[in-house]
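DM between two lab members

TW: hey, do you still have the cAMP-dependent protein kinase catalytic subunit entry open?
JB: yeah, one sec
JB: this one, 109 aa:
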Amino acid sequence: MKIYEKIVAGKYKFAHHFGEELRDILKNILQVDLTRRYGNLKDGSMDIKKHRWFQSIDWIEIYHQKVQPSFIPRCINGNSGIASNFDHYDEEPLEIASFDQYGKEFANF
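TW: and the structure you got?
JB:
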């Protein structure tokens, strides 16, 4: 629920190595206010495609599948081994709250 609350409130932190252009487009895509969110404005997805973060992208080449991807995930026997494409993180212990403040909303879930 804490992650959900942060998403709804628009609270996030950028990695220190994110450049200004990347921060700007993420800020506009993750905008909580729908009237200001990229992709939801008058020009739709063109707001995103025309952003300076994507200035070097040739969208027509991508459409015609002529761009070689920088990363191709390994697929071993279909779906087996699919988790091998993700970084491994140590699990954190689960914290159980003493009070369920969302019990009513999810009573019939």
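TW: got it. The chain has one domain: 2-85. The mean pLDDT is 87.
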